[in-house]
Amino acid sequence: MRRLTVFNQISVDGYFRTPGGDIRWLHEPRDDDEEFKQFTIENTSGDGALLFGRTTYDQMESFWPTPAAARQFPEVAREMNQRPKFVVSKTLRSPEWQNTTVLSGDLVSAITQLKGTSGEPITILGSGTIVAQLTQAALIDEYQVLVIPVVLAEGVTMFDGVTKMMNLTLTASRTFRNGKAFHVYLPKA
To answer: What percent of the chain clears pLDDT 70, i.e. is strictly above it?
Structure first.
């Protein structure tokens, strides 16, 4: 069975998205933390597939295939463009970003079926609505959370819509000079 992981960045007060969708805060603080840059490159390397909701997919697709992305983040851009990608959408028919497959049916059924196939792990990036639905269905195997040292004061959490309490076990943690903290959690059985 394929493993399903979430990687999301959140503010100290728990939000992963502002009400208006502004993502500039994800790049704070703006400094040259070489250890964090190396972590980012290592964290994006591998053979796994990526899973997006339509909003996150559109944001990613508008940047990663561009020359600007290749200049600014060459290793990450290469990985983002080469990996297999799944996008959950009822309206997207012909995705232009290479290696993209559209999942248009029932989300829980589609992901249950996808997890049952052989292949590399799947990582959800962003896509809070998907995270909440798949959390509710107990289909997520691991949560990777990067806490950004900023308070947004309002926004959307990646668990909006989850209606039952869930206990997690911390399995790894790492802090960086820029104040960001990376945590890995597994759902308790």
So the answer is: 98
Tell me how crowded residue 7 is: count the other CB atoms within 10 A of its CB: 18
pTM: 0.91
CA–CA distance, 184 with 169 (Å, rounded to integer)? 8
Which residues are CB-contacts of 54 (< 8 A; sequence separation ≥ 6)? Answer: 87, 88, 89, 91, 92
- How many domains does the chain fold into? 1
CA angle 144–147–152, rounded 5-degree value: 130
Q: What is the pLDDT of residues 14-26, one digit of tens each?
A: 999 898 888 888 8
Q: How far, in whole angstroms, is CA 56 from its chain's centroid?
A: 9
Give the CATH number, domain containing residue 38: 3.40.430.10
Q: Structural domain of residue 175, as residue ranges?
A: 4-187
Structure tokens at 5: 């992981």
Residue 79's identity, in one-letter code, is: E
Residues 72, 14, 178, 124, Cα dihedral to 10°: -40
